[in-house]
Specification:
Elements lengths: L9 H14 L4 H16 L6 H12 L8 H9 L1
Length: 79
């Protein structure tokens, strides 16, 4: 576990106290950890689900249609 000393404003301290009380945490460290987890899930790049990775592998192994430009692709698709 990492320990940090941080300086926060009164508003941020109130927010931590609200989160701590709302979720019944014993200390502000738990509130900070929860806020960090919510931030991670909401804003950082999510980890890909295993079933999606399998789907990507199947697509990459599939048959590809070579084409030079969009008109060439259109001709190949439309026959």
């Amino acid at each position: 576990m990492v320990q940090s000393i941080i300086d926060i404003g009164e508003d941020e301290d109130r927010i931590l106290n609200i989160v701590k009380a709302k979720y019944g945490f014993k200390n502000k460290s738990q509130a900070v950890a929860m806020i960090a987890k919510i931030y991670e899930e909401s804003f950082l790049e999510p980890e890909l689900r295993p079933e999606y990775l399998e789907k990507l592998k199947k697509i990459s192994k599939g048959k590809h249609i070579p084409f030079k430009d969009i008109n060439d692709l259109r001709r190949q698709i439309e026959g």
